[in-house]
TrEMBL record:
SUPFAM superfamilies: PH domain-like. It comes from Aphanomyces invadans. It holds the Pfam family PH. Gene3D superfamilies: Pleckstrin-homology domain (PH domain)/Phosphotyrosine-binding domain (PTB). It comes from the Eukaryota. This is PH domain-containing protein. InterPro entries: PH-like_dom_sf (IPR011993), PH_domain (IPR001849). Residues 31-137 form the PH domain.
Length: 190
């Protein structure tokens, strides 16, 4: 629900034509779980270290979340393979004004970085959180299935009888002395 007394950053924005066109192309060419326009918080690497918000088109797949600029070029991505549902966090309303973003924000934490995005509406935020949680659950289950396959494979190979002929011993050519801890080496002075 939008409140008419809400400041301009809270009002939904019209998407630029380029992002609408990118969305149309994305739907016909990829197998995305979810896609759409979100505001992405910058890293603050500019001259004034300001973390501004930029409108980007996002594509969520089972493996990654990537974002594109208005020209359709991939600007960046984060791997979703190691995310869990604990990695997705709905951010509380901020007391400070948000420059360019909205109050409906999501933080996505990965082992390598943290991405902060803002949605145009509360419903949009809930849809993105549901999609992100779906992908996180899928990847946790996929990792668990792969671990079970590895465990099962190692159990079946360890049950085979050990054949010492299969693993021949390789002996060192260095002569040892009577003490098993010492190795006789030629003297550099000789």
């Amino acid at each position: 629900m939008l409140n008419s007394s809400c400041p301009p950053p809270c009002q939904p924005r019209r998407l630029p034509f380029q992002l609408v066109e990118i969305a149309r192309l994305a739907r016909t060419t990829t197998n995305n779980v979810k896609e759409g326009a979100l505001f992405k918080q910058g890293a603050g690497g500019g001259l004034f270290k300001r973390k501004n918000w930029k409108l980007r088109f996002f594509e969520l797949t089972l493996d990654e979340l990537r974002y594109l600029n208005s020209a359709g070029e991939v600007k960046g991505s984060i791997s979703m393979r190691y995310c869990t549902t604990d990695s997705i966090e709905i951010m509380p309303d901020s007391d400070r004004p948000i420059h360019g973003g909205t109050i409906w924000r999501i933080a996505i934490s990965t082992p390598c970085r943290r991405l902060l995005v803002a949605c145009a509406s509360e419903d949009d935020m809930e849809a993105w959180v549901d999609a992100l949680n779906y992908v996180a659950d899928y990847n946790v289950k996929r990792t668990h299935r792969n671990m079970c396959k590895i465990s099962f494979a190692s159990e079946t190979t360890s049950e085979k009888a050990f054949d010492p002929q299969q693993y021949p011993r390789h002996h060192s050519s260095i002569a040892t002395t009577a003490s098993s801890d010492c190795v006789a080496l030629p003297s550099p002075l000789a």
